Amino acid sequence: MRDMIKQSTKGFIFVLIAFFLFLQITSASIGVKPASYEVDFQPNLKQSYAFNFFQDSNTELEVYADGDMAQYVKLSTNKLIGGGDVNVTVNFPTNVDVPGVHRIYIGARQVIENKGGFNLVGNIQGVIKVEVPYPGQYLEIALESTNANAGQDINLKLKINNLGNEIVSAKSRIEVYEKDGKTLKHTIPFDSEIIEPTKNAELSYVLDTSSYNPGDYKVVAFVEYGDDKTARKEAVFRLGEMRIEVINYTSSFKKDTINRMEISVESFWNDPIENLYATVEIPENGEYFQTPSITIKGFEKSMLTGFFDSDEIKDEPFSAKITLHYSNKTNEKVVNNLVFKSDSNNYVIYIVIATVVITILLLVIIYLLRRNNVHRKK
Predict the structure, then answer these.
(1) Would 368 be classed as within a structural domain?
(2) φ and ψ at 17, to 5 degrees?
(3) Ramachandran category for residue 299: left, alpha or beta (phi over 0 → left; psi -120 to 50 → alpha)
(4) pLDDT at residue number 191
């Protein structure tokens, strides 16, 4: 038994030392500036990029290149002490078979001094993103939309990227739909755009929503190009109204004590609303309480919290009337089926946890005793 305790103590000390070593090592920081570059591929292009690696210790860093096209990279140095600048020269090939984004990683990692010990090393990477054009005509598009309150303008922006190696004539339009995505509200046509390879075009439109009701709307962009090609992208915008709703609430409480009641709320207004609070009435015992006020952001979900005494509530389920107060407005919600939770459930949980803990301890003791007997026999 003495040997078992001694072995357990050694194991505990080892874990403790490893833990503090981990804290010490992970407290060190290592970084790189800039984090990335972006470049359009050009055959036989020779170009240089500068990365600055830094750390809060004076350890040695090994510099390396990895990822796509790493074989075309030449580094100004393979080693840094404490940090420093690395110049990266890339000699691009004549052609690349696979189109799309290729990533060259330029990294620095701390050198492991003790090969046989327990080591953690910092490792940071900068990246060079190389955009290789697609053969022929190929477009990718992005669609952005803002939110607003009903009656305010919505800003729509369509970005068209020519990722092919040919000039493209693009004809675009944006369609605005009701939330169901089927009822067309408005069509926005644009003039044709001539876009050079690896270049892009941005189209903007300010949508007047004076005839729109509050709610969610879907916008769909279509860009037609080539003989029969169409790029398509969707986005959603919201038109707000001055309204806050109760979306959830605490429904289970303890008997004959002070209870905490949490009320989840959601704002349907695009702007922040200050001084939002709730009052709660419980008819069963005449209890009335008010939550502290909060500021809720646009279209945000948040929480209101209050406390009440359940001492006089005799029957269950019971009900409560929650009234939200904000911007000289109120919104009421009556919630039913509020109940008291049974303490027996807690006892069951405690028994299960205790059983699991005891079982684990017994298994550990049995394992250590068996291992101790094996050592004695040897």
Answers:
(1) no
(2) -65, -45
(3) left
(4) 96
pLDDT for 311: 87
**How many whole angstroms separate alpha carbon 236 and alpha carbon 16?**
52
CA 319, CA 338: separation in Å to the nearest integer? 6
- Structural domains counted in the chain: 3
Q: Are residues 145 and 171 in the same domain?
A: yes
Do 307 and 263 meet the contact criterion of CB atoms below 8 Å apart?
Answer: no
Phi, psi of 302 (to 5 degrees): -145, -175
- Between CA 326 and CA 320 the distance in angstroms is 20
pLDDT of residue 19: 43
Q: DSSP states of 153-178 as a string?
A: -EEEEEEEEE-BSS-EEEEEEEEEE-
Domain harbouring 159, CATH code: 2.60.40.10
Per-residue pLDDT, 254: 92
326 lies in the same domain as 262: yes
Q: What is the pLDDT of residues 108-134, one digit of tens each?
A: 998 876 555 445 467 899 999 999 999
Rg for the chain, CA atoms, rounded: 32
Please check the confidence at residue 14 and state whether its pLDDT lies above 60: no
Which pair of tokens denotes residue 22?
């981990």
Whether residue 234 lies inside any domain: the answer is yes
**Helix or strand or coil: residue 143?**
strand
Question: Are 51 and 86 in contact, with CB atoms under 8 Å apart?
Answer: yes
> Pick from 327, 217, 325: which is nearest to 265 by CA?
325
Amino acid found at 28? A
Which pLDDT tens digit goes with each residue over 300-330?
A: 999 999 999 998 888 789 999 999 999 999 9
Task: Flag whether pLDDT at 7 surpasses 70.
Answer: no
**Distance between CA 32 and CA 52 in Å, rounded?**
5
For residues 322 and 332, the answer to whether their CB atoms sit within 8 Å is yes
In terms of residue numbers, what domain contains 290?
244-340
Predicted model pTM = 0.70
Residue 323 domain-assigned? yes
User: Do strands 244-249 and 79-81 pair parallel, antiparallel, or not at all (unpaired)?
Assistant: unpaired
